[in-house]
Structures
1.
Amino acid sequence: MTRETISCEIAEMIAEAMYMDTNDVEQDELFSSFGLESLTLTRIVGEINRRYGLELRVVDVLQHQTLRQTSTLVVAALACEEQHRAQ
């Protein structure tokens, strides 16, 4: 799965949670500029984990405060999971 695909899917999650248009979720804009607060971020991280079979924590995403950074984090986590399964 590409970073672009994951980025689009996470943008949809954010847009839905914040009642925004997906096109308004910019790649390099801080999540806080969308008004994203901790409770909503917790729900989004839970959805990311369910969708991709990951175990990211909110603190992991807080260290990656943009859509581009978070989607890159998810790609890296998926690659790590895939590597563990292959062993």
Note: The chain has a mean pLDDT of 94.
2.
Amino acid sequence: MTQLKHTGILGMKWGVRKSKTPDSADHISTREFKKKKVSQLSTEELRQLATRLQLEKQLKDLSKSKITRGQKILAGLLANVGKKVAKKYASDMGYNNIANVIDVIPTS
């Protein structure tokens, strides 16, 4: 006889995790500002929201992930395989001119 045991947290949604760190007061206030219409915000609230959004954008731009060597190799490999498949299909269908053009297309 098999039994099904629930070892999770009751009422918790699948795939939703509890936040390990509480949100900062600045983040909470920004979230509240975004719920309002722009015409309902005061000048100070608009300034705070604009500053927060600029800082988030700067952080995102600074922490862009670099493409690894493996990703570059894989991208080149996939491009070459795609060219070969397209060329074979074009030549099988009798489109020899297109097959010749595919050879000229550069890979990244």
Note: The longest helix spans residues 69-92.
3.
Amino acid sequence: MTTQNRGVVGTDGWYRIRALIVDDSSVMRKIVERSLRQAGVELEKVTEAGNGAEALASLHDNPVDLILCDINMPVDAGYGRAGICSPRWQNWKAPRVFRL
């Protein structure tokens, strides 16, 4: 498999997405992952985080193509205090998707 700017290309030529799912509910994180798979999204790897701080720490070690983030969490809410949308990430190529 080779890594591209977006996703990982498998030996079959199809892109597989590396996703980060951020939610304070572990049940909701599994529901989101299952929904992506049921929608036909090919997932190479799914990384989970329980809050924004965990998400930022995870991004240093796990490159991702897609971030699905709950913006209403009791600790380190999604994009606010977590800093995922801060200027230091502006050159980062992964799209950000926030779940309400």
Note: The first strand starts at residue 2 and ends at 3.
